[in-house]
Amino acid sequence: MRPSHMEMVNRKITFLYGSQTGTAQDVAERIWREARIFHFHGPVRTMDDYPVSQLIYEMVVIFICSTTGQGEEPDNMKHFWRFLLRKNLPADSLQGLRYAVLGLGDSSYAKFNYVAKKLHRRLLQLGGQPLLHIGLADDQHDLGANAVIDPWINDLWRKLSDLYPLPDGVVPLNKDILCPPRWIVSLSETAETYRQSSSNIELMEAKVGNNREEEFSQNNPCYVSIIKNTRTTAPLHLQDVRLIHLSAPKLQYSPGDVLMVCPHNASEKVDQFFSLLSCGSDGRLGPDTVIHVKEKDSDAPVPLALKHPLTLRRCAEQYWDLNAVPRRYFFHLLSNFTTSDLEKEKLTEFSTPEGQEELYNYSNRPRRTVLEVLQDFPQATANIPLEYMFELFQPIRPRAFSVASSPKAHNEEIHILVAVVKYRTKLIAPRLGLCSNWLAGLTPGTNIPVWIRRGSFHFPLSENNPVIMIGPGTGVAPFRSYIHERVALSQASNKLLYLFFGCRNKNGDFHFSNEWLSLQEEKHLSLFCAFSRDQEYKIYVQHLIKEQAALLWDLLSSKAWIFLAGSSSNMPAGVKEAFVKDVACGAGKLSHDEAKQFMQNLENTGYFQCETWA
Amino acid sequence: MMFSIQSGQKVLVVWGAAPQKKLQQLTGSLGKVCVENVDRLTMGSHPTSSFDVVLSGVIFPQSISHTTELLGEFLRLVKQGGRIILQEATVRNTNGTHLRTVEKLQSDLKITGLINIQEAKRVSLTDVEMQTLKDLLNIAINVNVVEIQCQKPNFEVGSSSKLLFTEQKRQVKPSANIAAVWKLDDTIDDDIETIDENNLLDEEDIKKPDPASLRVCGTTGKRRACKNCSCGLAEELSAEGKAVAVQPTQTKTSACGNCYLGDAFRCASCPYLGMPAFKPGEKIQLSDQQLKADV
After folding, report:
1. What does the alpha-carbon distance between residue B141 and residue B91 come to, in Å, rounded to a whole number?
2. Omega before A366 within 30 of 0, i.e. cis
3. Residue A478: pLDDT over 60
4. Would you tell me which CATH number, out of the four given (3.30.200.20, 2.60.120.560, 3.40.50.150, 3.40.50.1820), belongs to the domain B10-151?
5. Average of pLDDT values for A154-175?
6. How many domains does one find in chain A?
7. Which of residues 101-130 of A touch B (CB under 8 A)?
8. Residue ranges of region Fe-S binding site B (chain B) (predicted)?
C-alpha cells in the first residue's frame, strides 16, 4: 500500500548537489533513489539548476557537495553559494527548513571539506535546522569516501523515518529490488520519424557559420573548426602538449576566460562497445538503432541532448562516458542482468559494504573504465536492457581549458594549450584522459561544439599597477592571453608585467619560448624561468619567488596584482608559502603572523587570485 | 545576582578562575546546584538535558572563553527551552588579542543554535578588578565584561518525537519581508554585498581527521597512488606502491585456472593480471614484465 496523494505531499525532499567530477552527483542520485524506498520523493538537481529563492519554502533539503581545487566549491553551485552569502538575507530566512549536508573531500588537502563545512554553517546562520551532524567523507580513508557516506546515509534515513513516519499500513519498499529506470526508453516506431525530426539537428550541426548570436552554452554550443593542432613539447619529451588553434569568429571572450569542450569517445571504443553488445540476446541493440527517451516523472526531466530521437551510435559516441570509472551502483545494476552465477556472485559482492575494499582495488585504484569492466563481465553486458543503459552510463562531462589567445592579437581565433593525459596503473593498457586524447587526435577542418565560460580571473583594466603572473606548465595559458592583449593595446612594459614560468626542461616543455624571449628582448615583459630537471637539484617557481623577494616586495608595495595558475596540488601552497616567508617576512620584514595576514588580505581583496586545476 | 532562578530549578555553575569564597557565596544562594570547572566540564558525564539553567563565568574574574565546543556542551546539558547566562570579557578591537568583540560573541552564540539572545549587559568592575582581570587574560588594553542571556530552542536535534499529521500538513510560510529579499530579479549579483565566507569556519572546522582513523589494516601498509598524477610520472609511483602478495618463485603461474575470466576473478599471482578477459584457449602474448614476479 502506498501513501495517499495528500500524505505524499508532505513527504517531499529536495536533493541538491555541487559536483565537479561527477562523484557528488553520483552520491546525490544514490540518496535520491534510496529515498523512494521510504516513500519520499522529490527532485535531484545541481544547486545552480535550482531556483534558490524557492529555498525559503522548502521543508526538507539534503545537500551533497564536494570541495575542489584549492578549497573551492564546484562550478555547478557557484551561483547558489554566492546568493547564500548575501549580507541582506534575514537570519530567520530558513526557519522552516530542515537540512542535512554531506561533504566529499580529501584530507590530504589543507582545506578539507571546506565547502560543506561553510554551507552547513551558513544554513544554520540563516535559521535552518540540521537533521543530523555534517558528513565529511574523505578519500584518504582506506575504504574511500564510502566509509563515511554509508553510515551517514543510514543515520539520515533513521532520522527522517523518526520525524516523518509512514502512515499506518504503509511499509518501506524492499531495498534489494531493482530500482526502475528514471526515463522511458523505447525503440523508434519507424525510421521515417527519426529522419524527420533529426534533420533539424543535422542541419544545425552542419552549418558551422550559422550560429545564433545569443550566449553560447552547453545546450547551445558554438561550432568552431580546427585550424592547427601542433605538439609544443619536444618529440622526446615525456609529455605530449598540444597547442590547438580554432577558428571562432562568433565567440566573444576576454583574457582569463575558459573554453568549454565536450569530447566524444574514441571511435575504436565505440566499436568495441557495440561488438560487446552484439553478443547479446537483444539483436536490436546495434549502432543504427533509433531510440526515444521520454519523461516518466517530473522529478527526473529528460536533458535537452536526449529530447529528440537519436541513434545508439550517437549515444555511445557523444553521450555515454565509456572512459569513466564505474561506481558501486553500476555493479549493483549489472548483478541484476547477468545470467552467469559466477558473475552474479562477484558483482553482488562488489555492491555490498563488505566488498568495498575489493571493489576499490578492482576498479578505482587502477582506474578501470566502464568499457573494460563490461569486457570482464560479458554475460552481464550481453543482457543489459535498453532502458537501463542510461542508469549504467553517465553523460560525458565537458572540460574547461584556459583560453591562451588574445582577442585583439589573435583575431577571430581561439587557442588552447592541452596536456595530453596518459599514465600507467597496474593495468597493462595505459590510462588515457578522454578529452585531451580526443583533442589531440583532431585534424584541421574538423568542427567541434564549444562555448565560453567566464574564468575566475579578474585581470586589471588599468595599466598603473604591476602584474605578477605565476604560471608553470600549462598554467601559462591564461597569461599568454593577457600579455598579448596588453601588447596589442601598447600597454606592455617590463616594469609592469612579470611572468614567472616553470617547467621540466628548457628544451622540452618551455611553452611559447619564442614569444616570451622576444617580448623580453623588446622590453615588454620581465621573465623568470625555473627548469626543474635541467640540473641536479630541483628548481621550481617558488624558488624564483624567493630569489626575487626584494623585487617582489617592492612591487607589492606599489599595489601589484598577483595571479597564480597551474595544475599541481603542491605548487599553489608552495608559492603562497614563499610569498609569506621569503617576500613578506624576508624582504618586507614582517612578523610571520603579519605576513600571513598581509597575504590573506591580498586574497580577500582580489589582489591575489588563483586558478588551479587537477 | 540571582539571575531570576526559580526555586526548585537545577542549575549548573561553570567557573574558570574564581576564588572559592565567591563560588560558595553564589552557589549557597541557589537551590539545586552542580559546580564544574570549565576545564573539567566534559569529563563530568552529566546526562543530556539535565539542567534548567547554566551560569557560566558569572563570578569574578570572568576568564572563560565560550568556544563553540563549550557552547555545544551547554546546549547538550541544558533542557529544551532552558536558559544559559554567561559573562565574558570582550574588546572593542580584536587586533593582537585572543578575545572577541561583543558582536562576534553574539554571532557565535547564534551560530551554535542558541535563540532569544538578549542585549549584552555591561558588568562593571572596579579599577583593581579590571587590572587583575587584564593580568589574568594577559592583555594590555581594557576589556568590557558583558553578560548575555540566551535560550536553547524547544526543537531538539536528535529527539524522536513524532510529528502530528496536522503539523506535517503545515506549509512553510515565510514572512513577506523574507520573501522580498529572496528574489532573483537581480541575477547579476557582482555588486551585492556578501559576508566573508572565511568567517564561517572556526578552529575546529580547520582541523583534519586523525590519520589513524583512516586506516583499515596496519600490516599491509597500503598506500594511495597519487590520483592527480597524469603526466607519465605515475609509473614510478605504481611501481613503488603495489601491494601484491609476494611469491617466492621467479616466474608467475596461475594458481586457480581462472586466467581467462578477467581481473575480478584472477588470483594474486596470475600472470594475466591487468589484461582484459579473453576466451579460454585464446593465445595471449605476455610481456617479460608480466611474467616476472613483483618483488
Report:
1. 8
2. no
3. yes
4. 3.40.50.150
5. 88
6. 4
7. 107, 112, 114, 117-118, 121-122, 124-125, 129-130
8. 256-270
The rounded distance, in Å, linking the Cα atoms of B115 and B150 is 6
Residues facing B15 on adjacent strands: B37
Least confident of A39-48, A63-72, A364-373, B260-269: B260-269
Q: Give yes or no: residues A24 and A156 share one domain.
A: yes
Same domain, A40 and A89: yes
Q: Domain containing A437 — which CATH number? A: 2.40.30.10
Q: Is residue A402 domain-shared with residue A511, that is, in the same domain?
A: no
- Is the per-residue pLDDT at A361 higher than 70? yes
Q: What is the 3-state secondary structure (H, E, C) of B23-39?
A: HHHHHHHCCEEEEEEHH
Q: What percent of chain B has pLDDT over 70?
A: 69
Name every chain B residue with its beta carbon within 8 A of the beta carbon of A169.
none
Hey, what's the cell of B232? 607519465
Considering only CA atoms, give the Rg of chain B.
Answer: 31
Residues of B whose CB is below 8 A from A422? 230, 232
Among B178, B226, B273, most A C-beta atoms within 10 A, so best to mutate, is: B178
What separation in angstroms does the CA of A225 have from each of A59, A200, A228, A556?
49, 20, 9, 42
What's the domain range around A499? 467-612
Residue A201 lies in a domain: no
Test mutation, B115, B201, B210, B230, chain A, max A CBs within 10 A = B230
Do residues B58 and B18 make contact, with C-beta atoms less than 8 angstroms apart?
A: no
Minimal Cα distance from A128: which residue of B? B113
Residue A465 has pLDDT above 90, yes or no: yes
Q: Which amino acid is at A542?
A: Q
Strand blocks (E) in A313-419: 399-402, 413-419
pLDDT computed for residue A142 by the predictor: 76
State whether A450 and A511 are in the same domain. Answer: no
**Do A227 and A303 share a structural domain?**
no
Residues A218 and A304 placed together within one structural domain of the fold: no
Domain ranges in chain B are 10-151, 244-295
Distance in angstroms (rounded) separating the CA atoms of residues B103 and B91: 10
Apex CA A17: angle with CA A11 and CA A23, to 5°? 120
Alpha-carbon distances of A487 from A468, A499, A516, rounded to whole Å: 16, 14, 12
Domain assignment present for residue A177? The answer is: no
Q: Which of A284-298, B44-58, B211-225 has the highest mean pLDDT?
A: A284-298
Q: Is the pLDDT of residue A66 over 90?
A: yes
Which of A479-483, B166-170, B229-233, B248-252 reaches the highest mean pLDDT?
Answer: A479-483
Helix (H, G, I), strand (E, B) or coil at A186: strand
CA separation, residue A322 to residues A19, A315, A373 (Å) = 19, 10, 10
Do A271 and A387 lie in one domain? The reply is yes
Look at residue A210 in the predicted model and tell me its pLDDT.
Answer: 42
In a domain, A173, yes or no: no
| Predicted local distance difference test score (pLDDT) of residue A209 | 40
Q: What is the CATH number of the domain that holds A478?
A: 3.40.50.80
Q: Round the average pLDDT of chain A to a whole number and report it.
A: 89
Q: CB under 8 Å to A274, separation ≥6 — which residues? A: A286, A287, A312, A313, A316
Together in a domain, A328 and A374 = yes
